[in-house]
Amino acid sequence: MEYSLFCHHFYALSVSPVKKKLGLLFIMLLLWVYMLYSCVGYCATMPPSLVVDNSNNRAKETDFLGKYAEAESGRPDLVMSKLLARPQSSWTDVESDYDEPTVRRAPRDFSKDEVDADRAEEWDDGRRVSSLSSFSNGSGSKKLPQAIIIGVKKGGTRALLEFLRVHPDIRAVGAEPHFFDRNYDNGLDWYRDLMPKTLEGQITMEKTPSYFVTREAPARIYAMSRDTKLIVVVRDPVTRAISDYTQTLSKKPDIPTFESLTFKNRTTGLIDTSWSAIQIGIYAKHLDNWLQYFPMSQILFVSGERLISDPAGELGRVQDFLGLKRIITDKHFYFNQTKGFPCLKKAEGSSKPHCLGKTKGRTHPNIDPEVVQRLRDFYRPFNMKFYQMTGHNFGWD
Fold this sequence. Notes:
The chain is an alpha/beta fold. It has helices spanning 2-14, 17-44, 54-72, 76-84, 112-121, 157-164, 188-194, 217-224, 237-251, 258-262, 276-279, 283-290, 304-309, 311-321, 369-390, and strands spanning 141-142, 147-151, 170-172, 197-198, 203-207, 229-234, 263-265, 270-271, 299-303, 333-336, 341-344.
């Protein structure tokens, strides 16, 4: 009898309305915590826009320099880095005026104007690091890049990188690290720390177009990993030079005319190959330097023209080259008649269509047709050699 009475009271208590509500609230709380944890883990795996904490970088650099001498005797890779970092006076960095978004090492180099310009160059797709990710380390780990877009300036590298970031197996840095040309003394640990976290099977990438014309870059990338895959976006060197000049003109309206910069002597028609806008387009010359370290099978040349006319086709070649499934297809693009190039229907991390920033698709100034023809005559033999070296005819006149 006593046992039955006890069970009756216990049962009545357990099924009371208050207990039911408390139990329901407890279950809802558990579900909310689980969803929050899942969201934090997912956000941490998204490729964030690169944010440079200058105070932390300065501390890291000081620590790195302080330990360099001690570590040098026991780490052959640092010895190699130091040797390769010595400047070679026989080659000029023709990308010294490059102005794409880039990683800076000191606060004085990263002015407000530069930050604003960098944001303008990025895709306006609203991708930002979720504040939730600060509560979790997330999944994956930071790795050195297995593939790098090494060139060329004004060829379409920004568009290619943003198109590739749609692929779920590609994670890439948004800003240009300029590690192998400007920041090499910072060391590989500094470089790795710039990369986004990746999961098993994902590829880490970065793009810095000035690498293609930097004499030391091939040896330095080879020292990091001889298996690195290299991608070069090339474009008709004449239209590339005009586009290069147009970008500079938009920021420095008082520079000389395109015609006056093109020639050493207008009367004789002697082309000034020391001007970076001209020198970058001599692709065969720069490729010779890369072939000393990497076989042609590790270098993919993407047509800047076809990246506009047939983005899905060129992206298919890139995905094959990287050993990835062809996920980026025609369904991802639409052609923007105003800008004159393709845009993404849905950029990564967004449900809306997005195009490159307002600085893309500038109107080129009118160039003397005679100057254009002389430039085409100048580039023709170099183009022919480039076609032979790559086994691919890009169709430039």
